[in-house]
Amino acid sequence: MNGLQSPFPSVSKKLVEALSAIVLIALFLMQKFGTSRVSFLFSPIMGAWTLTTPLVGIYSAIRHYPSIFKAISPHYIITFFLRNGKSGWLYLAGTVLCITGSEAMFADIGHFSGRSIQIAFIFTIYPSLVLTYAGQTAYLIKHPNDISDGFYKFIPTTVYWPMFIVATLAAIVASQSLISATFSVIKQSVVLDYFPRVKIVHTSNNKEGEVYSPEVNYFLMVLCVAVILIFGSGQDIGNAFGVVVSLVMLITTVLLTLVMIMIWRTPPVLSALYFFVFFVLEGVYVSAVFTKFSEGGWIPFAISFILAFVMFCWFYGRQRKMDYELTHKITFDRLEELLADRSVQRAPGLCFFYTNIQDGITPVLGHYIKNMKSLHKVTIFTSLRYLLVPKVAPHERILVKKSELEGVYRCVIQYGYADAGNIKGDDLVGQVIDSLKLHIQNYSLNLSSDSQGIEKEILSLEEARRYGVVYLRGKTRFHTDKTHGWFDKIMLGFYEFLHSNCRSALPPLGLPLQQRIDIGMLYEA
């Protein structure tokens, strides 16, 4: 949007910021519709960008400084640093943005093969970047005072507005790729249980990567608009971006070196050679960029610190919760002991008891039986399993298993990212009951049981269903007292805050509210 100021000097900086914010808000508001409907435009836009900017660069180089391409020679790099010394090192902080623009193109790298990325960079992206920046440099050699707006100033007047449109659209596409990448990273973090649960909506039935999160979307929108309005200077935002990208490159080099040594089993000499060359090159850039820390470079560090703290507290709390549940889980042998108590009654009806432990039952069950002295005549311990497929076949959707205890069954509901909410309340009960009937018949036939026993068990299922269905789930919290240190109190206290304000682990199965029962229990931290 800064390009409006060249042909219209009366356009103020505040107006440019406001227009940029409006475009961003419109872009974020469109996220809920998915990118499938407009993604066919992305390739032509980026194709136009990578084709037109180098053409302008070639024109500018021929017109202003035809010998600019000698800058590719390492001789001039060495001469530059010998002549400028420390100042030359500081200048690297200004040139680092020349290599960061291509980072946005890696946002959806998982959707392409390695070969296609190599071909695209060798034959399009890299030549385009070299020719474009060569043209800008040739212009700036003749017009050094235009350094603050070198891009739009070097564009010829006859093609100014077409280039303005292409540049704006390319910036929107790059922003979209980063927004989509944010949704993807958050979704993967939620699946790995490293981030508080947020609503994830798949906007495509055949592409797992096309996701949308309302909470993340609007939080990101507010944050981006705030950065524009508070740090309106493009230079400050550029410094922030440069710090982040240069650090990403350095971290990637370290991680790739570990992959080469531990996974690829690359010879140590080659691994060391790769690490030395790239670590030194990127380390010099990072050290130079850090001089801009006070000029906007601190922004991503502040945001990263907050996100890292949230992720660490959530992971710490989830690990403590999982450790407690695995240590105090209720096995079927223990359940048999609890039900053997004469004071425990079997209440009529059908109960779906949700548990997130595959080889046992959450300790909430023991808490419930000990205090309520009852358990439904037909109790189905239900777990949910998320599969990385669009849709789960109907015959694989519900897996059931009969236990040795009367009226007690296990059930696993499997769902993919495109049909997570397709099973509704009554349909869920019907499908589980039908699966149980078939399983009971097959199970009894394998044991050569009498038909009367099979019929009696099936009738008890129908009777329990007619009497009423309830859905039980645990609502647990950590209990801390004076014996716990300040670290546990802070970490677990913040985890409880996050847990009470995040989405439920259960997908929206359309369960009737009047049939849901939450059972509270305090875990000893």
UniProtKB/TrEMBL annotation:
<dbReference type="InterPro" id="IPR053951">
    <property type="entry name" value="K_trans_N"/>
</dbReference>
<keyword id="KW-0813">Transport</keyword>
<feature type="transmembrane region" description="Helical">
    <location>
        <begin position="119"/>
        <end position="139"/>
    </location>
</feature>
<keyword id="KW-0633">Potassium transport</keyword>
<feature type="transmembrane region" description="Helical">
    <location>
        <begin position="40"/>
        <end position="62"/>
    </location>
</feature>
<feature type="transmembrane region" description="Helical">
    <location>
        <begin position="240"/>
        <end position="264"/>
    </location>
</feature>
<dbReference type="GO" id="GO:0015079">
    <property type="term" value="F:potassium ion transmembrane transporter activity"/>
</dbReference>
<keyword id="KW-0472">Membrane</keyword>
<comment type="similarity">
    <text>Belongs to the HAK/KUP transporter (TC 2.A.72.3) family.</text>
</comment>
<dbReference type="GO" id="GO:0005886">
    <property type="term" value="C:plasma membrane"/>
</dbReference>
<dbReference type="InterPro" id="IPR003855">
    <property type="entry name" value="K+_transporter"/>
</dbReference>
<dbReference type="Pfam" id="PF02705">
    <property type="entry name" value="K_trans"/>
</dbReference>
<dbReference type="InterPro" id="IPR053952">
    <property type="entry name" value="K_trans_C"/>
</dbReference>
<feature type="transmembrane region" description="Helical">
    <location>
        <begin position="89"/>
        <end position="107"/>
    </location>
</feature>
<feature type="transmembrane region" description="Helical">
    <location>
        <begin position="216"/>
        <end position="234"/>
    </location>
</feature>
<keyword id="KW-0630">Potassium</keyword>
<feature type="transmembrane region" description="Helical">
    <location>
        <begin position="15"/>
        <end position="33"/>
    </location>
</feature>
<feature type="domain" description="K+ potassium transporter integral membrane">
    <location>
        <begin position="2"/>
        <end position="335"/>
    </location>
</feature>
<dbReference type="Pfam" id="PF22776">
    <property type="entry name" value="K_trans_C"/>
</dbReference>
<protein>
    <recommendedName>
        <fullName>Potassium transporter</fullName>
    </recommendedName>
</protein>
<keyword id="KW-1133">Transmembrane helix</keyword>
<feature type="transmembrane region" description="Helical">
    <location>
        <begin position="271"/>
        <end position="291"/>
    </location>
</feature>
<feature type="transmembrane region" description="Helical">
    <location>
        <begin position="159"/>
        <end position="179"/>
    </location>
</feature>
<keyword id="KW-0406">Ion transport</keyword>
<feature type="domain" description="K+ potassium transporter C-terminal">
    <location>
        <begin position="348"/>
        <end position="523"/>
    </location>
</feature>
<feature type="transmembrane region" description="Helical">
    <location>
        <begin position="297"/>
        <end position="317"/>
    </location>
</feature>
<keyword id="KW-0812">Transmembrane</keyword>
